[in-house]
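Bug #77: duplicate submission created two jobs. Keeping one. Sequence:
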Amino acid sequence: MNEPMPEIIENMQTEIDDTWVEELISLTQKEIYSYRMFLNQLKAQQNAIIDRDVLQITECREHAEEFMNNAKQNSLDRRNKMQHISAQIRPTKELQSLEQVIPIVKRQYAARLNELREKLKSVLNEIKSSNQMTAFL
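Kept job's structure:
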């Protein structure tokens, strides 16, 4: 597969507005925060299950739903942001993930987005493990 020439990548970087990338970073941070709060509620729910505290289980479930809805909305907002810029710089191919955005932004933003991508993957893996534990309980 042919790698894009450095000039093409440089041109793409100049086309992507810094404000857009900063907004994408902010949206990703909000998404991670919401997922982290959701995970905290899952863990609290597990403790309530172990303690057989029905009231606490119910409260945790309600809070977890709220945080999950926030996370879903933040995820949707982030994806919409990527689709918006995608239409401007890559009309033939939609940007669908942070992994696709990272190579076409300025170096300082690429490092931050990569860090956020790893945090997002990590929290989603923790949620998956927590859900499996809750199902076991």
